[in-house]
Design goal:
By secondary structure, the chain is of the alpha+beta class. Helix content is 54%, strand content 20%. The protein has four helices and two strands, in the order αββααα. A two-stranded antiparallel sheet has the order 1-2. The chain is extended, with a radius of gyration of 21 Å.
């Protein structure tokens, strides 16, 4: 099946498009002011969906992006990693460390990470790794 036929077959499976318009506020440190811009995003769907469900799905997607991916990058500098051999293994180790820090969070994650690094094995042994049911 050539590329054109595949894209036509995919287009037939899509039943609706969700168009989301949003205002984005970006802080400009140089001026101390907030700039406002508008964005438009188009999300294809393979089944009919209500506006409320589409909005909830978009918010849930961005909450994951903002809560987990951004903090993993900011705290563990994941995007700056230069590991080229088996990067998945180190990504899992970072996820494991991030989840333990999040589970034992007392301050911010960077402060907890710093405290765990300074505390050595004693700090690691004081951490909780699971919930008892």
């Amino acid at each position: 099946m050539n590329l054109r036929r595949r894209s036509q077959a995919r287009a037939r499976r899509l039943t609706s498009d969700c168009l989301i318009e949003r205002r984005v506020h970006t802080f400009q440190p140089a001026t101390g002011l907030w700039n406002t811009s508008r964005e438009t995003a188009l999300y294809p769907s393979n089944r009919p969906i209500s506006a409320r469900k589409a909005a909830d799905a978009a918010r849930n997607h961005w909450s994951i992006e903002n809560k987990q991916h951004y903090t993993r990058d900011a705290t563990l500098r994941e995007d700056a990693s230069r590991i080229r051999r088996n990067p998945g293994i180190f990504a899992r180790l970072r996820s494991f460390a991030y989840n333990i820090l999040r589970f034992n969070q007392s301050d911010t994650i960077p402060q907890d990470r710093h405290a765990a690094a300074l505390g050595g094995l004693e700090a690691l042994s004081d951490m909780n790794y699971y919930k008892e049911r």
